[in-house]
Amino acid sequence: WTISSHGHDDFLQCLSLQSKDHTSFSNIFYTPENSSYSSILNFSIQNLRFATETTPKPLVIITPVNESQIQPVIYCAKENGMQIRIRSGGHDLEGLSYTSEEPFFILDLVNLRDINVDVDKKTAWIQAGARLGELYYRIAEKSRTLGFPAGVCPTVGAGGHISGGGYGALIRKYGLAADNVIDARIIDVNGRILDRKSMGEDLFWAIRGGGGTSFGIVLAWKLQLVDVPEKVTVFTIARTVEQNATNIVHRWQYIAHKFDEDLAVRVYIRRVNSSQDGKRSIQASFQSLFLGSVDRLLPLMQQSFPELGLQREDCTEMSWIESTLYIYELPVGPLDVLLNRTQANIPYLKVKADYVQKPISKNVLEGIWKRFFEEEAEKAELVFIPYGGRMDEISESAIPFPHRAGNLYKINYSVYWDEEEASERYLSWIRRLYSYMAPYVSKFPRSAYVNYRDLDIGVNNKGNTSYAQASIWGLKYFKINFNKLVHVKTKVDPSNFFRNEQSIPPLYSRW
Ligand code: FDA
């Protein structure tokens, strides 16, 4: 199907007619003629790969300041066959919240960002456009012994992140962000505002981890906050391969998922230049958050991971909110940096993910290190995120996110670069690494994480997305839960109004 500029004009006209009855749209509407169009578009772009001259741009950006402005937008988009892209924090790793090959407009929820924390009930309502850093900050403003288990990057948006699961340093103790959602408000394809009760348990299940876009527009989440101690302990110990990194990483695979659930030790793999002789090496940094005091941590580490040689002087006690800065490798200082809604240096970026179910041999680890000596790996990074703990206790079908017991850890592969012309080289580097890893990670299917969106693993057909086509990527993200997601989608959005390259299709979809 195609849409003419005629459809676009009709869409705009429909909105202006609607605004007579509702509220004025003039201040929340940006077409390319508007001088703020580019700055509004770029404000939430986190990946320069989708901000090039050839990247398709929206016909209009709409930035509602209240929920009632969204209903007429849906009505007019449906009437005129306009494709909607919903954006909260804009971190979609394939840019799907702000680009599309079909003519489209962006519904940008950047202004819907209220956060209300209820300390007595240990809950918070957060609107979709608020960022995780803002959430952590607002919680800490009211309590230093409450937290929330979501992502480590403070500019990530609540709307997309929680829709796809969402994890951070508290994953082993409390699971995913989506595991801790107790209510939500969404707008469905008919423009109805629904909460948990009125949407029903199936749709409420689907929106907590089934990925953004497919089921409607999430307006806000109600979160169950979690207890954190007044003082947590952090440390980072870095070892190069010359300092036994290979053996220590190898050992880590056998134990990190079994640690006390108060302890999460991630591993960052990067290439470094030695400060002594300037020679290149591979470094593994073991970065940890422990929900307790250094006195309790030291014997635990001594007993379970003596190979790391943790000393008291490696450890720092701080509040949980300070640890959110530390874990994101920001200086631990004034907390208001958590309120920054944009990142300083936006890169060209490609990310992929894997789940590891059996420890990888030292030889294979050395094969990874070898690839990190290639030119393209200068700013590449692997992160190993330990599972176990709470993740083992939650059933595979509790929410759509299925990667629970049986997974030792998750691997995030990231490659960053600075020049558009070089993109193909870097993409090819990360794809080669990903194929090298195929025999050593989860199989049948090779699992992936919907929030680390990767269009390489499959996309919907243009024009006519079949269940079979969508299941190529869908089973990787959701395993058997994919079928239930399709069932819910068929019920709530049979005409597939809410769609993108990896949205859940309804059965018998025309699109
Ligand atoms: P964005 O607005 O791009 O939305 C993502 C998807 O959800 C899009 O398809 C969009 O259309 C849809 N969507 C957005 N708002 C919606 C709404 N209100 N209703 C319905 N659909 C909506 N993940 C993680 O688990 N832990 C982490 O620590 C990190 N860290 C991280 C760092 C950086 C720098 C990046 C770029 C990404 C991450 N992520 C992550 C991945 C992140 O969780 C993922 O990209 C989220 O989907 C981003 O949500 P945003 O709202 O920011 O994105």
From TrEMBL:
Pathway: Alkaloid biosynthesis. Pfam families: BBE, FAD_binding_4. It comes from the Eukaryota. Residues 54-228 form the FAD-binding PCMH-type domain. It comes from Forsythia ovata. PROSITE patterns: FAD_PCMH, PROKAR_LIPOPROTEIN. Keywords: Alkaloid metabolism, Disulfide bond, FAD, Flavoprotein, Glycoprotein, Signal. Its cofactor is FAD. This is FAD-binding Berberine family protein. InterPro entries: BBE, FAD-bd_PCMH, FAD-bd_PCMH-like_sf, FAD-bd_PCMH_sub1, FAD-bd_PCMH_sub2, Oxid_FAD_bind_N.
